[in-house]
Amino acid sequence: MSLKILSVSAALLAAPWGLSAQPALDPGTLYKQTSPAVVVIEALGNDGKVARVGSGLLVSADGKLLTNYHVVAHSKQDTVKLANGDDRYREKTYGRSKSCANG
User: Fold this and answer.
1) Alpha-carbon Rg of the chain, whole angstroms?
2) Which of 69, 70, 84, 85 is buried most deeply by CB count within 10 Å?
3) Is the pLDDT of residue 41 over 80?
4) Pick from 62, 70, 72: nearest CA to 98
5) What CATH code would you report for 1-13+35-94?
6) pLDDT above 90 coverage of the chain, percent
7) CA distance 23 to 6
8) Residue ranges of the domains in the chain?
């Protein structure tokens, strides 16, 4: 699976999306259903060493990730650690937005 990173600001994630109401899940069920999609992202600096560590979320079956801008900003390469322990490398960044005002 190739990984493609989408990065956005936290403000964009908090924006209302007009999603239809879903029945509430208990915390245990919610964790079991969503935790496999959470990843750890290590952004590597020019020297090849880890410069920043953050988290992300798999948002599609073909490997698209969503993370905050500051996690991948200015990095040359990112290592993504999946919930099953596998490591992957960023293939492509689709878009970056520092804030909602920048689109």
Assistant:
1) 15
2) 69
3) yes
4) 70
5) 2.40.10.10
6) 9
7) 28
8) 1-13+35-94
